[in-house]
Amino acid sequence: MSDTRLPRPTARGYVTGQVVDFTDSYLCSFQVEGGAKIGGSMFGRQARKDALSENETGLWVVYPGTRENKLIFKIRGKAHSDKQEFEGQFFITGNIKKIKGEQIFVDIWSVVKQRYFLVIVEGHLKAKRGEYYELECGLDGDKLILVDGKKLADRLDPADYFAEVDLGSKQKLEAEQEQEREPEQERQPEQEKELATLVTD
């Protein structure tokens, strides 16, 4: 465990658009206003409630991720009015997994789930594998574009975050996820495959 606490790993964005094509299994797409349609899923009952009750364009909180090297969104819900200033911005804090050409592969440590998930950012960054970075990004079509990057440390030690998991929050999250699951006899094989391959926060 390191002596200095680093900023918490995160991947979060604020994007204007509308949730579309959602199913009973919480899979959906997000239609960016004036832009691309991005696949993903709804995170929890609040996101689904917002999508059903406010079926209109608005500012949403999303967690970006990757599936089959393509950008996906895990949709958290409608953003509060005080977040309007962040519209179109994405904040990624994680370890540099690799840099290939103009693609930056970032491993994000999920504090709750205690595992990594991947986010891919387009742009140029002078960084080494394993370094811990804070990235500010924008959205262009279906790609995250690097705006600015700041090195925070040579590496993130996940052990710093083992004890940080709030058991009450984790139990609440697990209970919410359990309620979201469909009965096995109602889930279609295609939906099962999609859910199994979805990379989430």
Task: Characterize the structure shown.
The chain has 201 residues and is an alpha+beta fold. The protein is built from 3 helices and 10 strands. It has helices at residues 44-53, 167-180, 189-197, and strands spanning 10-20, 27-32, 37-42, 58-67, 70-78, 90-100, 103-110, 115-122, 132-140, 143-153. Strands 1, 2, 3, 4, 5, 6, 7, 8, 9 and 10 form a 10-stranded mixed beta sheet that branches. Mean pLDDT is 81; it is low at 163-167 and 172-201.
Instruction: Determine the strand fraction and express it as a percent band.
Output: 35-45%
| N to C succession of SSEs | EEEHEEEEEEEHH
| Envelope shape | globular
Major β-sheet, in short?
Answer: 10 strands, mixed
- Poorly predicted runs are 163-167, 172-201
N-to-C CA distance:
23 Å
* Average pLDDT metric: 81
Number of strands: 10
Structural category: alpha+beta
Give the helix tally: 3
Descriptive terms for the model:
10 strands, alpha+beta, 201 residues
Please summarize what this structure is.
The chain has 201 residues and is an alpha+beta fold. The chain has helices at 44-53, 167-180, 189-197; strands spanning 10-20, 27-32, 37-42, 58-67, 70-78, 90-100, 103-110, 115-122, 132-140, 143-153.
